[in-house]
Specification:
Structural class of chain B: alpha/beta
Mean pLDDT of chain B: 95
Number of strands of chain A: 30
Strand order of the largest sheet of chain B: 10-17-11-12-13
Helix content of chain A: 25-40%
Distance between the termini of chain A: 17 Å
Strand content of chain B: 25-35%
Strand order of the largest sheet of chain A: 10-7-6-14-25
Oligomer: heterodimer
Low-confidence stretches of chain A: 1-11
Largest sheet of chain A: 5 strands, parallel
Radius of gyration of chain B: 23 Å
Shape of chain B: globular
Distance between the termini of chain B: 26 Å
Chain lengths: ~575, ~375
Amino acid sequence: MTAPDNSSSQEPKDGEELRIGVFVCRCGTNIAGFLDTETVREYAQTLPGVVFAKENLFTCSEAGVSEIKRGIEENRLNRVVVAACTPRTHEPLFRATCEEAGLNPFLFEFVNIREQCSWVHKSARDSATNKAKDLVRMGVARAALLEAQTEIRSPVVASALIIGGGIAGLSAALSLAKRGFEVKLVEKKEEMGGMLRFLGRIYPADVDAREIVSARIEEAANHPNIEIFTSTQVSDLRGYIGNYTATLRGPEDRSEGITVGVIIVATGIRALVPEGLYGYDGRRVVTQIQFEQELRKGGDLPHQVVFIQCVGSRNRERVYCSRICCMTAVRQALMLKEKTPSAGVHILYRDLQCYGVEFEELLRKAKKVGVRFVAFREENPPVVDDGSVTVISDVLGSELTVPADRVVLSTALLPDESGAATSKLLKVPVDADGFFLEAHVKLRPLDFATEGIFVCGACRWPCTVSESIAQALGAAGRASVYLAAGEVAVEPIVAVLFDEDKCRGCGLCASLCPYSAIEMVETDSGTKARMISVACKGCGVCASTCYRRVIRMEHYSDEQMQAQISACLKGS
Amino acid sequence: MLDAGRHPNINILAYSEIAGVSGQAGSFTVQVRRKARYVKEDICNACGDCVAKCPGKAPDSFDMGLRNRKSIYLYFAQGIPAVMTIDAEHCRFFTKGKCRVCEKTCVKGAIDFDQQDEMVEIHAGAIILATGLDLYDAGRFPQYGYGRLPNVITGLEYERLINATGPTGGHLLRPSDQKPAEKVAYVQCVGSRDLNHCSYCSSVCCMYAIKDAMLAREHDPNSRSYIFHTDLRNVGKGFRNYERRGAEEYEIEYIRGRVAEIQEDEDHNPILWYEDTEKREVRNLQVDMAVLAVAATPSRGANALSELLGIEQNESGFLKVDGTAPVDTTVPGIFACGFALGPRDIPESVASASAAACRVAESLGYS
């Protein structure tokens, strides 16, 4: 492999003389204990463009930072390279140091000779020293081509669009409205309230579901900062964080345009209708939601009830566990026993998912009042007959027939049908089961990767009412960070379309961008890509796939990376 | 942790305890006891020269006591703030009156043997409690032999053994003879879902046992894992798929049944006695190591802190909340998040943390 000769590009573009300063950190013994920092410093001094090189005991200390500042001033440095630890911890400090000394912070280059060198080559001092020299040479080569950058700022409209008027959407709306932000709450059904409209008493809150949702609907309807749109769907969405324009299509196909700064998705769930499973007929064999209505109405309740868990879930077709159906079954069993203490109740389950404190307590209570629990295996599902259910007990190992004048099927919970359309419209992903996919499954559960769009409630994953409210508050809090700031600031490491004439408008970049930061626009000279800098995360997918090669990554340009690679291959 | 450490609006007071609180929502005054580290926080930069020279030794609490550290130490490599602490209980100077090697070694002059606990007063409009969890005492289950049988360890000890920065460099070496542990049994619900100990489900142990077993197999293709569970609980996003992958790709054996007793043979191999519910007979399984999924409890300081703040706890010691206001404690202006509110996994903890921050903003009228 031959390395391209990039020596000609080592001149600053505007003709000013290149004056690079290199600071090599000993980091006490963390670096100097395992490689020869003085040798690295001497070597740095010989590199093209370097006019000053210094060794520091700790570059990050007060002393080290003032040595950088003095170095910049006394030697008129216009590029600074620090060879030390990791940018994750110390880049902000060194960038700020450059800025304080009058140098644009993006003319700073960090070389990691600790985590990526001294710490991992503790028993090879000479090789570690040579590797540090290679790394410094690469850093200097890139530094020579660095350009000054300025932070990108963009205003944020102090208004939120919330999609879904269930308990999650309502809770998020009220939180934002109370803090003075304007909310547009969109519900596709004629009535707000979502799933909770069908439920009775819920745990662990121990309140009537309709009461809490009604109270919130009333509060939202009367709140001056909340505008509610029922029987309405979002039909079009354009724009980016801080400045979205949505078209809402309401009753009789009336359309209305709104402008918002952020979006919260709370489209909820539905229960699987178990057509063809266990003799489901909606009368004798019913779903949990149907049984909930029966319990609520009171009157003549069935005397022998059998619950069958995992109907349509935890199987080949739908692998996942719907999280809350075990608890619902236990709760409904308790409600029945409360009304008819002599009723016989059997819950046929695979693994009882009563996690945490309150639901385990609920389970104990149910056992105490005589609810019977029978475990079965996936390969031996219960058989529903007229007036009875037969199951092979996993514990007894034998067949058991229990009387049943009502069979309740605890069916899988699925994302609401509108989820797919919302996903497409907002360009936010769903997982294999159709639930919305957050930016990071552990650390950013309420954010989408696209900045400015958030998710909460059961559309993310089935959850209890308490969990849903907590997520709604969390999403509202996350969204409010942008609304309160009034603007969004972005590091200027973004993609730039530097030659629009050459762009053919193929749209590959826009379709691959994971952050919806590129839109295709019609211009006089045809379709062109337009970069939305404020939404760009600088990942580089667009630049590396653009076959016209007209997208540049600021601060990580092809020339900069090439220079670094060439310097690596060149050897010392 | 890094982001918090360098955020200009966040002031971290580590190695500190709440000593008193007065006032009410919108205007609290909090007394914080900053415990003496005997190291000046503003000067020390954790270079480690003192640690290299320190002659004292103490069990490494971060590594669950599986190895020793020096008497002057950094709690763990990535800890924030990155500042040394002297363990006065094990320091030669504090116990024998002679040494001061660290003081002589430190070129920055960061050691201060005269440092005293210091009281700091903070004024705050709202308070968030995120006190987390501790593990229940594994020694309270004589039938499992923890502390008596060397190769019976807790889940957290396992985490240190399989960790590349841990005492064995990430090799799963069992404590009795430092030989690789290939056959590993995981015993679930040790203290959880047990009226004699913790009545609740700790909610995270089933999943971490599966993860631990997968890590073992990734480390050693000969590894075999057996998870003894009550109900296998996997209600989180993608969890059930993970469980299936455990069985299909990592050959984990899931066995329904509580382990009755653990004994050992002359080579310290644990022998687990359990009921095979499928064959309905009592069987035993000899393994190289057994890992106990000990119940997770509210953090040890939770009771005292709750009393100090006047907030209510539930019967299990977790902070009491109303299900429709899931991060509000029983005292206005004091909010909570994470495991302090009850067992939950990382995503639920993070979501509740955002919720608590949101409630603070609401309560202080930030817009």
